[in-house]
Structures are given as C-alpha cells and as structure tokens.
Inverse folding.
C-alpha cells in the first residue's frame, strides 16, 4: 500500500528525504503493537491541553510540528535487559536444544560408512614420479584391493579426493568462459580464458581455460569380490548445470590438442551438457583439498567384501606434491561423513549449560540488586569528569 | 581607494557591477567540475576513487569494478543532488530578490524596473515598508524634517527603528528637483562595515554648490533593511549587488566537523594503516608462495619466463589492496549523512521544542552536527533576549518615598498607585508625565486607533507602556509637539528641546511647554548616580538611594526621574546658549554637555522606576540541569556588571556566598587587572571541587588580559565552570569562544541578536534564539530554538541520542566491513595467497549497500534510556561528553569482535562444508549467510529499545537477504544460479547457521551479562532502574523534584528580598558604586 503523496510535506524534502519517506511509510503502517506506555508527563498531554488555544490561531497557520509517535520518537518500544533470569534461561535453552541436535548429527555422521583410500603414493614407482606420470606411453593402471569394514547401503557415492590442489587459485578460478560453455555461437568469447585460449591451429578452444584444460583423468574400474560392478556415471553433475550452464549444442573443439596436455580429453561428438565429468570438475572447489563425485554404485556392498579397484593413474599431482584418494561413501540427511557439526554442537551445548550453571552459582554467591542508584558514579563522590 | 558615484549620469553607470545578487555556489556550467573537486577533496572519496580506478585493471581486480563504482557513483549522486538542490533554492531566493519591482526616478520620470537593473548612480524611490534593494545615500524623504525610519533587523538584528536623516545639502530640494538631481558622491570602496560610511557629496543641480557635504552612516539606507513609517524616501545607489555592505558581510560559513567525525576520520586512517600492513604482509607471502609453490602447480600455467620481478610483486600486492579495500566501509558516509538528516528532522519535528508564544518550532539548519550537541562542554550564553525575555516591564516604582509594587511585585496593579492616580496625586501625575514624555519613543498609530511604540531602548518603551497602562498615554508625537491622553482628556505639549542621552551623562532630559498654561518644564530621567546628585538642595534623597539599592538587588533596572519648573527668562537664556553650543564647530559634544549640565540642576526628584527584564520561562531549571550534566555555562553580555551578576544569581548561574565565590577581575590599570587575574587563578587552583567558583570580568579587562597574559586566562577559563563576562563586544564574545575552542573544548554559543552572530559562527555549535531581536542570530546559527529552556532538550535528548546513535553506526560500519574483509583474508591462506575473492561481486556490493546498511539505520530509533530518565539523571551526559561510546578503546572492542566473528564464520564454514561440499559458490554463500545472521544478532544485541520499525528492518532485512538470493538463484546467467535452493534444502546449512550464531554471540552475551551485573556502567544502572521502577515512579520523582526546585527558587527569591548576601567577597577592587 503506497502512502498517498499528500503525506509528504513539501518543506521536508530537502535534506531528510529518506526520513520523510520513512515517516510516510510508518504512518501507514497498521498499528499492530500493544498500546504505548504512558507518555511522559510533559509530553503529549500538555500539547493536547493547549491545542484548543491553538485552534483559534489556526487562521494564522501554526508552525507547530504535527504530532505523531514517529516524529516525537515516542514509538512504543520494548526494552529487554540482560537480567539474570533472561540470560540464564537463554543459555539453558540453547544448551538443551544443542545437545540433542549434536547427538543426532553425530550419530548420523557415525552411521555413514566411508572408505578412503589414498593411492597416489602406491601407484607410481618411487623414483621419478613426475617423469612417470608425464610419460604418455607407459601403462599407468594400478590395482588396489580394499576391504569393506561395514555394510554399505546403496547408493554408494564414489568420489575422487585431491589434496593440495588449488582450484580456488585466482589464476585458475577465473580462467573459464561461461558463455562459451552455454552457447554454440560464443566460441570466440575467450577473454577470461588466458592462458589456455587457442589451439594449435589458432582457433579458440572449446571449452577454453585452465579449469577445463586440467580436467581430472584418473579412472576407476571397481569389482566386488572379483565380480565387476557397474559404476553409474549418469547424473553425477547438478541437473541445473546440465540444463542451463552447459549447452546441449556445444561440442568440444580443439580441446587438448596443443603442445601441453593438461588432463582428460573430451569426446568431440558428445555435447558439453552430457560431459558430466567436465561439469563436475568445472564446479570449482573452494578448499585446496576437495572431493568430486566420480559415480555411484547402486548395489549394496556387504561387510568384509573385497573391493578391487583398477585405477588408471593418469593425473599429475606429483609435480606439486598433491595427494589423490578414492572415496566410497554412503549418505544420510547430513550429507557425507562429517563429525564436525555433531562435535561442535555438543561442545557448544555443553558450554552453554555450564555457563548457565556458572551464572546461577555466581548469582547465588554474589547477588546484585539491579538498578541500585548507589552504584552510579556520581553518587559515589568520585566524579569522573572528562579530562 | 575611492569610488566616485555620479548621480543620474549614464556615462559611468556601467563601471560598477549591477545590482544582481548572487549567493549561489555553482553555475550550471561549473557545477560538475566544481562539485567533483569539492567532493574529492575528502580523503575517503579519494581513496575510493583510487580503488575504483585500480579495479578497472582486470589483471588485478578480484571482483567486478561495479562493487566500488556502483556505491561510489551513488554516493556522488546523492551528495551532488543535495548540493544542487540547496544551490537551486539559493538561486530561487536570489531570483526573487533580483526581480522585485523597484521605482526609479530619472529626469523627473518615475519608472518601475527590476531590482537587478539598478546601477550605481541611479536614484531609487522607495515607499513605506519597501525592502531596500541596494546601499543608498538618502537624499529626500516625505518628512519635512528630512527624517526617515528604517528597520535594520536583517542587517544587525536590532529590531528597533533607526532614524536616518538626509544630508544638509539636499535638505531644500523639492520633489521635482529630486527627480533631476545631479551630483557626485565620493565614497570608499565597498567594505563590510555596517557602522561606518565616511563619504561626502556634492550636488551640481539645481544649484551649483561646490561645498562638500560630509556623509555618515546616518545618511544611508542599507540593503536588506526596511523603510518604515515614512511615506517615501529616495536615495542614490552607491553600492550594488554583491558589493553592498550586507553583501560583503555575507560569507560562506566553513562546514563544521563534529568531534565524532574527527574520531571517525582518525579511525579511518588507523584502519587504512592497518590495511596497508596487512596488504604488505599478504603481498610478501603471496609472492613467496608463488615462487615456492605456485610455479610447481602446472595447472596454473605460470609463464616460465616471468615479468620483471617488481611488476610481479606489485601485482599481487595490488590485488590484496583491492581485496582489502572493503575494510574501509564505503557506505559509512552515506549512512551517517542519512542518519544525521534524520536526527535533524527529529529536532525539527519535536513538538516539545515548539514555542507557542512566537509560533516557532525548533529548526536545525545544519544537519551535520547533531552528535556534537551530546558532547558539549561549554555553553556561552548571551544574556538579554536569551536568558531574559528582552521584554521590559515596569515592575516597581518609588514615588516620593512610597514604594509601589512591593507587595505583589507589580506596580501597575498596585491598588495604592491606582488610587493615587485617580485621586490626582500631583507627584504621581508628574511622575507619569516624565515617564510618558521624557524619551525618544515614536508612537505609531495603527488603523484601529491603537497606539504602539517603537523605541531605540527597551527601557524607554517599558516606561511609556507603563505610563499608558496607568492612563497616561502618549498618543502622538512629531518633532515639535507631543500629545498626551490622561484619563480621557488630551493635553498638548510643545517639545522645545531634547537634551540627548550620552553614555557620559547617563541621563536625558526634555524641555516642554505645557499647551494650555504655557508653563515650561524640564523633565529628566537618568541613572541614580547621574541624577540624584543634581537634586535640589534640601530634598531627602536617602529613600531613593535605598530604593535603588533594593531594586538592583532584585535584578531590576533602575532609573530616577526628576523635574523642574523653568522660568521663561531662564529658559530663553539657556536656549540661546544651547543653540550656540549646538552650532559650535569644535568640541561640540563637550559644550552641549556643559550647557545641559547647567540646566539639569536643582531637580525635584520624583521617584525611581524599576524595570524588570524578566527571565525566560524555565531558565534557572535549565541552567541547573545543564550544570548537573557537567556542562560549564558562561554568560557573555554587553550589559553592566551589576545587572549581569543579578541575572546570574536569578538564573542559578551562580549561587550566593557560602557555596560559591565570585572572583572579580577588574581594575583601573593594566597592572591591577593582571594582578587580579593571577590572584583569581591562584584561588581557583587552591579551592576544593565542591565550592563553585566563578569569575567576573568586563570587556576592558578582557582586552588587556588577551593582550598581555592570554595563557593564564586560558588556564583560568579551563578551571572555571562559571564565568560572567560583561560589557563584551561581539568580537570579544567570539574571542572567548575561540579561546575555549583552542583549549580543546567543545563549545556551544547561544544568543539571539546580531551581536551574537560572530560568537555563534565561531563556536562548534551555534544556537540562535529566534526571538524578539530578529532572526539574524537564528539565521546564522546551526540550530534555532524559540526559548532558552529548549536547550536542555536539544542537548540532553537530541544531542545525547544522536551521539549514541552515531557512535554505534560508525563503529558498526567498520565492524561489518572488517568482518567480511577478515574472511577474505583468511580465505587467502587457503587459496594460495593469490587474492581470490571468496565472495562474488553481487554479494559484496549488496552486503555493503543493502544487507548491512538497512539494519544499522534502525538505530536512529533507538533510545538507551528514556527521556524522563535522562532529565532525571542529567549526569549521564558525562558519558557522551567524555566520548565513552566512540573512542579507540570501544573501537578496539568492535575490531576484536569482528575478528572473532570472522574466525567463527570462516572456520565453521570450512569445517561444515569440507570435502565433497566444498563447492566455491556454496561455500561463499554459507559464509555470507553466516555474516548476515551474525550482524542481525549484533544489531539486536546493541539495540536498547525495540520499536516496530526496528524489528521490521532488522528481521525484514534478514528475510530480504534470503528473498534476494533466492531470486538471484533463479537467474541462470548468474554464478549464484540454484545455489541458494541447494543450500536451503540442506539441513546442514541451517544447522551451521545456528551454530555460527551460538558460537558468535554466546561469549558476547556472557560478557555483556557479566559486565552488566558486576561492573555496570551508569547507563546500565539507569536502564535497570527504569526497568525495576517503572515509568510511573520515575515521573513521580521528577514531579516532586520539580516542585522542590520551584520551592527553592521562590524561597530564595523571597530571602533575597529582605536580606542580601554580598556576593563579591573579593570585592576590594570591584567597581560597585551606588
């Protein structure tokens, strides 16, 4: 409901126009508040007493400011104070709320079965790791066997985890062209993609930029108890990214055909919106250690099952000393396994309960009357004048 | 340098500027460059401009340049449009003045032209009540005596009518001749001295008269005065446009900076230093990381051959500079300006500061300095019209030994006096006659036959009015006769001579001839010491001396009246001497005085009048309250010492002997004065705090002290809570303000007249009383109020709240900027010190402009303690006076709080959103939400009273944050696309938010609670008192306190009636002569 213009008094507009607008707005605000406390004795009552007097003079136009609770700063207000009762009960309440939430989170987190296997050290020869990984000719497959500690219910998420990889580096995070990913005709929009812009033939790379160029290219083939199981790599990316961020008519071009090969190559016949590994990779991580979804296993894995993973160890984390790990994890309402929330809630809840107790005890030992005028500095004869 | 003005001569009329007045600061063409220049003179604006320019360099900018340019342009547009609007209003008022129609006479023809078309040398024809368009030399009026009246209120603030007279040379010109007159006026170049005009004039036509006629200020009509009670007047334009006396004295007042502003500026610079240190450290480590780690990160594809090292180094440095630039809140200026605008509006709107009598609301002309009001340390107040009403009323009188008005304090209603009049008591009748006739008052008859009086002196007006009330009414007066109406019958008196008042003679007399009888009378009035010695021998004057003594102890202004019958022969002889003396060329004044002296002798003393300049309503209470609030009040007046001291007593400025001591600094010679100053200083130093010490000095002493020992005086001024300075010139008043200001005190000057303007402009805060002496002071002031008593509300309520609110707003602005900046810095350590911004451009901009600016604005409604409590415990002002709420210590608290909150937000975010959830956009939004949640709770924590706009804005903003981000999340082209939907559907998001708030606010609440309970500040205690007592008892207390106060006052007044404490204990040198 816009306030009628007549409420804006023209002479007010000069400096405090915002104030006027506020004033007008508040005037039209329904009074849903409880009735105000009795006004100060010298305030409104005097004004209303004198109003009739003013009426006679009205022909001379009174300059008296219009009375309203807003302009007189007399809006009804509640003034909560930090009294012992309020503070202690607040802490108590927070403690009582936080402890169960913490317990629930912690148990949810504990129920999640998570299998983390770091393989970067085991899948390379000890000497010259970088040389090994950079050699395109050698076979880099590496078989690892894991034992499942607990029953894992489907769906089981497969992540790859990379450590000390700065996807959030300024140089890296900027080096992409969202327009190019989305629109067919935008291949030339490569302004931000430096330094990975043009292919060997001088035509723009699609998708350009360091992010796409450094696409992760380790692959995992997983079998349970020697029996290969299917890893579902469909729908690992956000649906919204597939629909709106990556074009279904944009095909990779010129990708990874320069002198330096970064990461994975892309099938040029599949549109970007179907290149889910790329889409997942392009959602850059904010932290230097991160996990990205590789796929899902849609069958349960029993306790003590033997998992055999054949890893194509292609991705170079060796030159900067980063780690790589394979992660299999079940999910719950809280997301992946993360004890932090649960522990933090329990700590905070406990601390609040402790504080509440502490304040109660303190109050019993040293009770204080609130609002004792004798505590006023000027009543204690030590006049604390400035300077 | 001189200027020659040829009257009615076209040949030279264009050599001086026209009469176009221009008060505007800008023109249409120079507005943009000039305004930009003005705005970018501020350090903050320069800083932001630099940042904005750096952001255009895409190589280093972490976020889109819009984050700085947007707000910067908004800020610029807001301030520029305010300036433009003000200037446009000035232009409009100038235009109105310039296009006013004015009559011009040229070659005998009257023409009407616009005021701006007047040129130097033109003859301007004015009618009654016209505003004078430029400075004129008067050459003709409708009055046969060549007199006209002008009201100079707009120029010097004095509301009485001034008489202006035509120069003798043009006295004989007829109306026709005036239209054709030619001549030359030789006058000095334009200056701003409105009391001086040393020029001369020669007329060519109609008579060639080569004699130069001297001109003084009395022959001029100055711009912006009004012609009154004169049918017409005409004059030659000598100064026009901006070169007039009033135009030259207009100066653009320097914008005032409040103490809070100064602290904010200092804090800004401190933060700027801190920022530079942070940037240098981060830049160093950033480069170190790049060369130790970064080059190994193949996916970053650092060029093998790097650029020049210094270039590389500075790139990372500049990136961090840009990243950290948000540390200085860009919004602080706009937020504060808006808040200050609202404070000013609250003052304008305040109904309790509306003056019913004069129909004037309080007004704050300067919207920028409200918080200074809450930090005032010294109030320097004018007396007449500020503390007193400047409405003189005859309250008591003593006629031939009988004291009238002693019982009821009002002689006009004293039954005995009324009876004496109706019984035609000859002494009383004579007394009234002197009151009615012996003056220079001009009676003005209005249309409905009521008579009003215009007088140069308020005392005379009071006497004439009193006489009129006692049936002796002066109904008309011209230069030769006066008509009196007594009990319905009219009497004519021939005014033979006026023996004028001079400050040496301290008396004035008139010689009149009674119309019917032809008896010649000398009527005199004057100060007691000037008149009583001239009483005829044998008359008992002791009773009059006693009456004078008693009246002046009551703070009344006394005059003695006397009269004498003159014999025809005596008068004739004297008259001859008088004429001679009047015509003498050298030593005229002395000779006239001699002659008058010879006539004013053997007076029959009729009695004593006592005129009261009543204290304004509520002045003593206000002063007491202000002094309780720790404000030192000084009274600076042009009045006499005795009156000033009496008024000081009456209005609680000083108390009588046992509790206080008044030190007088005076003396006849420089040495004596300086010695008494040293003595006063010594006493001041050695007296205990409980005793109120005050000093009194007069203008002459001040002049000498300022010349010889300014330092000791400054020390005295700092020690003295009260001072009475009398006989001050406007300049001296301003000097006193300057001394206190230079000692680092925050001063407030309050006055009502033109003589207070300089002091008002000099002080940190100028308050004008828009009262009887015109509006000049009010116009020059930052605040104008109708009555002195509103000052307490202005300072204790508006000033204090404004200070509290500004303290919060400014520190909070830093808090929120630091909060988000610390998070960025912490994130830098996780992103390889490369200068990545965790937050996207939209979030950053909106964070500063919307999410955090709106809630903080709610504090403009906040009241820490109620108005009643503040009035009850005015000492609480000490808090804001000492700057307890905004100083480096409190700022460190806020700084620490923001650091803590940044750590909380950051670590909870990266722990809760680690591993597979560590998506950049999501993480950034979680951190941002954490900040928003925390800031909402911080504002809530620091709000003392919640009114619905506050609740609405704080939590409405909170909801708006989610609304805006949900909407932004629906736009596919943004990075934010779907992020908020994702987050809002995750329980872990909400759980993290709750955790952030609990961890962030828990310690704050605990700390506050602990402090509140075990180390409460005065404000805390008062809040608790309010809470526990409820408002009813509080107001009850106040009522009883008020009653007490009134009792005390009336009681003390009664006491003083019969018994008087000599106040000047130190009065060996005090010049009290009765």
């Amino acid at each position: 409901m816009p306030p009628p213009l007549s409420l804006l008094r023209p002479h007010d507009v000069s400096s405090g126009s915002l104030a006027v607008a506020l004033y007008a707005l508040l005037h039209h605000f329904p009074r849903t508040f409880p009735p105000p406390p009795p006004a100060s004795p010298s305030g409104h009552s005097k004004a209303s007493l004198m109003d009739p007097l003013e009426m006679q003079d009205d022909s001379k136009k009174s300059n008296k400011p219009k009375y309203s609770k807003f302009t007189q700063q007399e809006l009804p207000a509640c003034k909560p104070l930090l009294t012992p009762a309020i503070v202690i009960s607040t802490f108590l309440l927070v403690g009582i709320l936080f402890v169960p939430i913490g317990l629930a989170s912690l148990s949810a987190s504990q129920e999640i079965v998570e299998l983390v296997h770091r393989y970067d050290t085991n899948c390379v020869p000890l000497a010259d790791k970088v040389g090994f990984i950079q050699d395109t000719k050698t076979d880099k497959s590496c078989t690892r066997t894991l034992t499942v500690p607990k029953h894992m219910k489907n769906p089981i998420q497969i992540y790859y985890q990379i450590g000390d990889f700065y996807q959030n580096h300024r140089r890296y995070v900027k080096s992409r062209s969202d327009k190019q990913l989305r629109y067919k005709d935008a291949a030339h929009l490569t302004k931000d993609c430096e330094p990975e812009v043009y292919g060997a033939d001088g035509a723009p790379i699609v998708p350009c930029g360091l992010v796409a160029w450094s696409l992760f290219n380790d692959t995992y083939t997983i079998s349970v108890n020697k029996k290969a199981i299917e890893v579902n790599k469909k729908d690992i990316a956000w649906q919204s990214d597939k629909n709106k961020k990556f074009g279904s008519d944009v095909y990779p071009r010129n990708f990874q055909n320069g002198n330096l090969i970064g990461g994975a190559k892309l099938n040029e016949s599949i549109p970007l919106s179907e290149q889910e590994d790329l889409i997942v990779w392009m959602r850059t991580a904010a932290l230097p250690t991160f996990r990205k979804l590789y796929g899902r296993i849609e069958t349960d894995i029993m306790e003590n099952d033997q998992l055999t993973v054949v890893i194509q160890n292609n991705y170079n984390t060796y030159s900067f000393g980063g780690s790589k790990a394979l992660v299999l994890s079940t999910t719950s309402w809280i997301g992946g396994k993360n004890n932090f929330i649960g522990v933090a809630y329990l700590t905070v809840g406990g601390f609040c309960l402790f504080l509440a107790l502490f304040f109660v005890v303190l109050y019993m030992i040293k009770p204080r009357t609130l609002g004792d005028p004798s505590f006023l500095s000027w009543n204690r004869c030590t006049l604390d004048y400035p300077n | 340098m001189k200027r020659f003005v040829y009257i009615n001569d076209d040949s030279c009329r264009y050599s001086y500027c026209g009469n176009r007045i221009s008060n505007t600061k800008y023109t249409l063409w120079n507005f943009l460059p000039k305004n930009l220049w003005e705005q970018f003179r501020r350090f903050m604006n320069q800083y932001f401009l630099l940042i904005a320019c750096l952001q255009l360099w895409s190589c280093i900018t972490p976020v889109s340049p819009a984050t700085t340019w947007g707000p910067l342009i908004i800020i610029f547009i807001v301030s520029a449009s305010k300036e433009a609007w003000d200037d446009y209003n000035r232009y409009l008022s100038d235009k109105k003045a310039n296009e006013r129609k004015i009559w011009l006479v040229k070659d005998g023809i009257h023409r009407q032209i616009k005021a701006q078309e007047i040129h130097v040398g033109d003859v301007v024809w004015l009618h009654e009540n016209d505003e004078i368009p430029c400075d004129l030399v008067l050459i003709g009026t409708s009055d046969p005596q060549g007199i006209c009246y002008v009201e100079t209120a707009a120029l010097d603030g004095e509301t009485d009518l001034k008489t202006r007279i035509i120069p003798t040379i043009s006295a004989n010109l007829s109306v026709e001749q005036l239209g054709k007159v030619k001549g030359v006026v030789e006058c000095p170049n334009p200056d701003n001295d409105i009391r001086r005009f040393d020029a001369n004039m020669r007329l060519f036509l109609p008579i060639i008269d080569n004699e130069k006629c001297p001109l003084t200020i009395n022959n001029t009509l100055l711009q912006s005065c009004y012609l009154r009670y004169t049918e017409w007047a005409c004059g030659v334009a000598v100064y026009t446009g901006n070169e007039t006396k009033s135009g030259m004295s207009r100066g653009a007042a320097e914008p005032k900076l409040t103490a809070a502003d100064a602290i904010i500026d200092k804090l800004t610079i401190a933060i700027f230093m801190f920022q530079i240190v942070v940037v240098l450290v981060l830049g160093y480590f950033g480069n170190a990381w790049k060369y130790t780690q970064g080059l190994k990160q193949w996916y970053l594809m650092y060029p093998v051959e790097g650029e020049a090292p210094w270039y590389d180094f500075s790139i990372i440095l500049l990136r961090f500079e840009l990243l950290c630039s948000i540390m200085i809140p860009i919004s602080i200026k706009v937020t504060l300006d808006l808040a200050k605008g609202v404070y000013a509006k609250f003052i304008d709107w305040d109904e309790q500061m509306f003056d019913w009598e004069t129909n004037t609301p309080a007004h704050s002309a300067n919207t920028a300095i409200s918080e200074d009001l809450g930090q005032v340390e010294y109030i320097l107040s004018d007396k007449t019209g500020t503390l007193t009403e400047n409405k003189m009323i005859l309250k008591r009188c003593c006629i031939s030994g009988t004291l009238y008005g002693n019982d009821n304090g009002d002689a006009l209603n004293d039954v005995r006096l009324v009876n004496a009049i109706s019984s035609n008591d000859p002494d009383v009748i004579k007394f009234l006659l002197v009151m009615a006739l012996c003056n220079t008052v001009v009676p003005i008859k209005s249309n409905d036959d009521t008579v009003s009086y215009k007088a140069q002196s308020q005392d005379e007006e009071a006497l004439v009015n009193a006489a009129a009330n006692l049936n002796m009414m002066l109904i008309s007066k011209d230069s030769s006769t006066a008509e009196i109406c007594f009990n319905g019958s009219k009497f004519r008196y021939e005014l033979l001579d006026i023996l004028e008042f001079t400050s040496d003679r301290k008396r004035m007399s008139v010689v009149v001839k009674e119309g019917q009888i032809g008896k010649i009378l000398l009527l005199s009035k004057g100060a007691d010491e000037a008149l009583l010695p001239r009483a005829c021998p044998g008359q008992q004057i002791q009773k009059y001396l006693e009456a004078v003594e008693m009246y002046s102890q009551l703070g009344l202004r006394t005059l003695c009246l006397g009269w004498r019958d003159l014999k025809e022969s005596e008068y004739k002889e004297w008259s001859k001497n008088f004429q001679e003396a009047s015509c003498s060329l050298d030593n005229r004044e002395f000779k006239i005085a001699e002659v008058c002296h010879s006539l004013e002798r053997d007076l029959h003393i009729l009695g004593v009048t006592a005129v009261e300049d009543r204290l304004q309503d509520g002045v003593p209470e206000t002063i007491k309250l202000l002094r309780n609030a720790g404000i030192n009040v000084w009274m600076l007046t042009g009045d006499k010492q005795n009156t000033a001291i009496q008024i000081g007593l009456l209005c609680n400025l000083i108390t009588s002997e046992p509790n206080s001591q008044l030190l007088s600094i005076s003396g006849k010679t420089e040495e004596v004065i300086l010695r008494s100053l040293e003595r006063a200083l010594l006493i001041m130093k050695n007296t205990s705090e409980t005793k109120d010490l005050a000093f009194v000095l007069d203008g002459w002493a001040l002049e000498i002290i300022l010349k010889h020992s300014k330092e000791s005086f400054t020390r005295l001024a700092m020690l003295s809570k009260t001072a009475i300075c009398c006989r001050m010139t406007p300049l001296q008043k301003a000097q006193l303000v300057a001394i206190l200001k230079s000692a680092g005190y925050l001063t407030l000057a309050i006055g009502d007249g033109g003589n207070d303007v300089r002091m008002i402009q000099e002080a940190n805060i100028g308050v004008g009383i828009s009262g009887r002496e015109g509006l000049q002071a009010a116009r020059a002031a930052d605040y104008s109020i109708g009555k002195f008593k509103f000052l307490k509300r202005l300072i204790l309520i508006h000033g204090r709240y404004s200070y509290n609110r500004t303290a919060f707003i400014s520190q909070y602005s830093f808090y929120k900027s630091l909060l988000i900046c610390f998070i960025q810095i912490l994130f830098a350590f996780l992103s390889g010190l490369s200068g990545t911004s965790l937050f996207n451009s939209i979030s950053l901009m909106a964070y500063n402009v919307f999410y955090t600016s709106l809630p903080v604005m709610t504090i403009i409604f906040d009241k820490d303690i109620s108005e009643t409590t503040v009035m009850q415990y005015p000492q609480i002002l000490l808090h804001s006076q000492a700057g307890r709420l905004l100083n480096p210590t409190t700022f460190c608290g806020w700084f620490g709080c923001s650091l803590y909150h940044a750590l909380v937000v950051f670590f909870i975010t990266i722990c809760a959103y680690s591993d597979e959830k560590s998506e950049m956009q999501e993480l950034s939004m979680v951190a941002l939400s954490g900040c928003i949640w925390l800031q909402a709770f911080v504002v809530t924590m620091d709000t003392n009273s919640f009114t619905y706009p506050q609740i609405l804005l704080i939590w409405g903003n909170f909801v708006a944050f989610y609304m805006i981000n949900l909407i932004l999340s629906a736009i596919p082209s943004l990075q934010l696309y779907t992020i908020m939907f994702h987050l809002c559907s995750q329980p872990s998001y909400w759980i993290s938010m709750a955790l952030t708030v609990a961890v962030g606010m828990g310690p704050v609440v605990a700390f506050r609670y602990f402090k509140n309970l075990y180390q409460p500040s005065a404000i805390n205690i008062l809040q608790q008192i309010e809470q526990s007592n409820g408002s009813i008892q509080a107001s009850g207390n106040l009522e009883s306190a008020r009653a007490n106060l009134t009792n005390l006052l009336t009681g003390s007044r009664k006491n003083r009636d019969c018994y008087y404490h000599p106040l000047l204990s130190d009065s060996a040198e005090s010049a009290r002569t009765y």
In short: The two ends of chain B are 49 Å apart (CA to CA). Chain B touches chain A through 118 residues (CB under 8 Å). Residues 760 and 766 of chain B are 4 Å apart (CA to CA).
